């Protein structure tokens, strides 16, 4: 098992990450980068289909606020549950003798 884990860690660490090549002209890429820098608009993936939506940021945030105000869908929490979730996660790992990826990598160095 030690050899398998070592092989997996060695293989993962040797993978070279290469940014994807753009499938549209550089001119369009520059235009998109310019739009991304404009704080008055939001560029987001559409809910349906494989398209991009560009909209006024105040409209976008207004829609988000409207969705979050829907009491039938969302409930306002009295406290932030993040710390409790992290604590339970770590307790689960401890109880099940499962190592986190960072610990696993350190144990084989």
Task: List the main descriptive attributes of the protein structure presented here.
5 helices, flat, mainly alpha, two-stranded antiparallel ribbon, single chain
Question: Brief description of this entry?
Answer:
The protein is mainly alpha-helical.
Could you characterize what this model shows?
With 109 residues, the protein is mainly α. Among the domains are: 38-74, no CATH class; 77-109, no CATH class. 51% of the residues lie in helices and 9% in strands. It has 5 helices and 2 strands. It has helices spanning 2-13, 26-36, 57-68, 82-95, 101-107, and strands spanning 41-45, 52-56. It has a two-stranded antiparallel sheet. It is flat, with a radius of gyration of 22 Å. The two termini are 15 Å apart.
The biggest beta sheet is recorded as: 2 strands, antiparallel
**Roughly how much helix do the residues carry, as a percent range?**
40-55%
Number of strands: 2
Q: What's the order of the H and E elements?
A: HHEEHHH
Apparent shape: flat
Can you lay out the helices and strands and say which pair or pack?
Blueprint: H1 2-13, H2 26-36, E1 41-45, E2 52-56, H3 57-68, H4 82-95, H5 101-107
Antiparallel strand pairs: 1-2
